[in-house]
Write a structure and sequence with these properties.
single chain; 449 residues; alpha/beta; Rossmann fold; 2 domains; 6-stranded parallel beta sheet; 19 helices
């Protein structure tokens, strides 16, 4: 447990302009207790976002990845699910218990789950009660769906003027694609990601991770934190729109607009060094190796390592510009040479010469990587329903730390009753909501917790 009394961090909690100034009298006691705890030298229970409350209406990957990241650093995340639940519960193959897939476990820790049928007036009313007490409201359906549910920014702001209202959706509302449904593969194909494989391999292929979702999810974290900083400075809430298509188009074209950056164009699209077919893991005598030598120092050390010191003065390879222009020839020479030794022999030699290189990993060998073991990357933990699972530690370290009250990924509706009580519903109303299928009482067996 870290000692955060030595850290100075911006106070991003709602209602607080400075550490000693409460702007929101209704919540003064809540935040005052937390301030007193910090001033007395006690560790925060949840890290730098302790006190930030997020109502999370998202599903699958893009939104859940964003809210889990915020939750890992202390935000209280209330995951609002439809009675059908997040489809990711079922979308990732076998599980120990139903509706708890491996990918769901990796994207939904540090959250509580409540089920609300938003098509019923009582479900929408409960959601608005949650939003009235929240700092961030995150959703990832088409904007028109939010309008049909009467959950537009203006309608949500009416119950909480300071809310950060964040929408993640496929396409910007100003364009003709605005009503199209979108998944990661749709965005990868439409934004040019699959075409990069076409240029290299002769056929279009998706990157076999949900890369667009994860990239845009990280952007959502950035935008939410910016909005919280802005509210800390101004006291004002905000509406945020994060379209996946435009973000991924920017992501791809920053790399590959290339000579069409200039007007008129100086040539075509596509960074030739990155798209060169030889730019791949390189075969060795007994396997594969990953190597890149960009600077003169690295390239010249590589030429020495492969027994070709004369290449250091060869006009095709004696500078960064020359190697870029002759990248195909360079990779042929490099790749032929690396077949002469084993992967281990090359790695040992490259380490002595400070040439960037790593062993080529499969998914299985990656889980046995000695460096990841050194840093404690994998952690086996007991889950109340899924027995023992393998978690991944947060890679990034900081003096302000992360939450210490770790929460496992929840069963569907596991916290429905608990959360409804917290926002003022009495037992009779909660029972009626359960009977009417407005909510689901998904509490797990207390004996397993």
């Amino acid at each position: 447990m870290h000692d955060d009394s030595a850290c100075v961090i911006p106070d991003l909690r709602p209602g607080v302009r400075r550490a000693s100034t409460i702007r929101d009298p209704e919540n003064a006691d809540r935040y005052g207790r937390r301030a007193n705890r910090r001033e007395s030298g006690m560790s925060m229970a949840g890290g730098p976002l302790d006190g930030v409350r997020i109502v999370d209406l998202t599903a699958v990957v893009v939104g859940p990845m964003a809210t889990q990241t915020l939750g890992d650093y202390g935000a209280e995340v209330i995951k609002v699910e439809t009675p059908a639940g997040d489809i990711l519960r079922d979308l990732n193959g076998r599980a120990v218990t139903p509706r708890m897939s491996s990918k769901f476990l990796h994207l939904n820790r540090n959250k509580r789950s409540i089920v609300l049928d938003l098509k019923q007036p009582a479900g929408r009313e409960a959601l608005l009660r949650l939003v009235a007490r929240a700092d961030v409201f995150l959703w990832n359906v088409r904007p028109s769906a939010m309008e049909r549910l009467k959950l537009s920014y203006d309608e949500v702001r009416a119950v909480n003027p300071r809310i950060i209202y964040c929408g993640l959706f496929g396409f910007g509302r100003g364009g003709r694609y605005r009503e199209k449904p979108a998944y990661d593969t749709i965005i990868q194909g439409g934004s040019g990601v699959a075409a990069l494989h076409h240029r290299v391999m002769g056929e279009p292929r998706y990157i076999p991770i949900v890369m667009a979702d994860r990239t845009v999810g990280a952007i959502a974290v950035q935008m939410i934190l910016l909005a919280l900083v802005n509210r800390y400075r101004t006291g004002e809430g905000a509406a945020i729109e994060i379209p996946m298509f435009e973000n991924m188009a920017k992501f791809v074209l920053e790399e590959h607009m290339y000579l069409k950056t200039f007007d008129p164009p100086l040539g075509t699209t596509g960074d030739p060094r990155v798209l060169e077919p030889g730019n791949r893991p390189v075969p060795t005598k007994d396997g594969w190796i990953c190597i890149t030598a960009n600077t003169n120092a690295q390239a010249f050390a590589l030429f020495d390592a492969i027994g070709r010191p004369e290449l250091k003065t060869d006009p095709r390879f004696n500078s960064v510009t020359a190697r870029f222009a002759n990248v195909t020839e360079l990779y042929v020479i490099r790749n032929d040479a690396l077949k002469q030794k084993t992967t281990r022999e090359w790695l040992e030699l490259f380490d002595t010469l400070d040439i960037p290189a790593l062993p080529y990993h499969t998914l299985d060998s990656l889980m046995e990587d000695p460096h990841l073991k050194d840093v404690g990357f994998f952690q086996k933990v007991d889950h109340p329903t899924e027995r023992r699972i393998v978690n991944m530690a947060l890679p990034n370290k900081s003096s302000f730390g992360n939450r210490v009250d770790f929460l496992h990924a929840p069963k569907i509706g596991q916290h429905s009753v608990e959360i409804l009580r917290e926002i003022g519903y009495d037992e009779a109303v909660i029972e009626a909501m359960i009977e009417n299928d407005t909510t689901v009482d998904g509490r797990i067996d207390p004996g397993k917790q």
